[in-house]
Specification:
Low-confidence stretches: 1-9
Structural class: alpha+beta
CATH class of the largest domain: Alpha Beta
CATH topology of the largest domain: Class II Histocompatibility Antigen, M Beta Chain, Chain B, domain 1
Number of domains: 2
Bound molecules: 2-acetamido-2-deoxy-beta-D-glucopyranose
Strand order of the largest sheet: 1-2-3-4-5
Distance between the termini: 67 Å
Helix content: 25-40%
CATH architecture of the largest domain: Roll
Strand content: 35-45%
Number of strands: 13
Mean pLDDT: 85
Order of helices and strands: EEEEEHHHEEEEEEEEH
Largest sheet: 5 strands, antiparallel
Shape: elongated
């Protein structure tokens, strides 16, 4: 099983947007700080310069220099890259600009993270021809961002998810419900996977279908019967030993 792709909730901090329009031309400059980990260790700073909606130059802190995307962009990027002070200052923005702002946000939002309480329940009982409907519910979590998905024997299921609904409780917490239709098959394991900032990793909850009523009763009667029989044997044996020892 591998999860890394599913767990990449990128937090994008759009910290500065500069827009100007003149004579029908449109220019904007967009700075982004992107990270997935709460310790901000994977922080990337992206600085994009756009002219008439097309990206002309981009600075990506992973690369560490300006890249031009048009003829004008390529020549300008070359001039900027020759400016050591500018390049160093732009590279440093990961630490001087992105991290301090992200830290403020982390403490303001993610410091108040509350992990969901997850419950699986049977909505509709099927049989070998009619599908069963099982619901995975996550309650009382914060913040709102969450991902609920289904696994069949560990592999992601997408086709039979009939509904997914998220709603606010009205008290800053949220709840979400996802339903899966499936025809029960022997040996098949259905699980619900929940990813949320309150968890350190994706959490997997296995669905244990309730045993049919009749079988359960038979099993119970059998267990009681067996226990009674055992007790009878023990008493008889004890009596026999007592009788012999006298
Ligand atoms: C930044 O550069 C890295 C390395 O080339 C790349 O993997 C990543 O996708 C780039 N990010 C953006 C937003 O372009
Ligand atoms: C950038 O610097 C290199 C090496 O110092 C030089 O060859 C090149 O002409 C410079 N380019 C610009 C556009 O200044």
């Amino acid at each position: 099983m591998s999860f890394p792709k599913l767990w990449s909730f990128h937090h994008i901090l759009m910290l500065s947007v500069f827009i100007s329009t003149a004579n029908g031309y449109y220019y904007h400059h967009w700075s982004q700080c992107i990270h997935s980990f709460h310790d901000l260790s994977d922080m990337v700073y992206i600085d994009g310069y756009y002219f008439n909606k097309y990206m002309v130059i981009q600075f990506n802190s992973t690369l560490g220099y300006f890249v031009g995307f048009t003829e004008f962009g390529v020549s300008t990027a070359e001039i900027w890259n020759n400016n050591t002070a500018l390049v160093q200052e732009t590279r440093a923005r990961v630490d001087t600009f992105c991290k301090p702002n992200a830290e403020t946000r982390e403490t303001a939002i993610y410091g108040k993270t509350v992990a969901p309480k997850v419950k699986l329940s049977l909505v509709k009982k099927g049989d070998s021809r009619h599908p069963s409907l099982v619901m995975c519910s996550a309650y009382d979590f914060y913040p709102e961002k969450i991902k609920v998905s289904w696994l069949k024997n560990g592999a992601a299921v997408t086709s039979d998810v009939t509904s997914i609904e998220k709603m606010p409780n009205g008290d800053w917490y949220y709840q979400i419900h996802s339903e899966l239709e499936y025809i029960p098959k022997a040996g098949e394991k259905i699980s619900c996977m929940v990813e949320h900032a309150g968890f350190s990793k994706p959490m997997i909850y296995d669905w244990n279908p309730p045993l049919p009523e009749f079988e359960w009763n038979t099993q119970l009667l059998f267990t009681i019967g067996a226990a009674g029989l055992m007790l009878g044997i023990i008493i008889a044996a004890a009596g026999l030993i007592y009788y012999k020892s006298k």
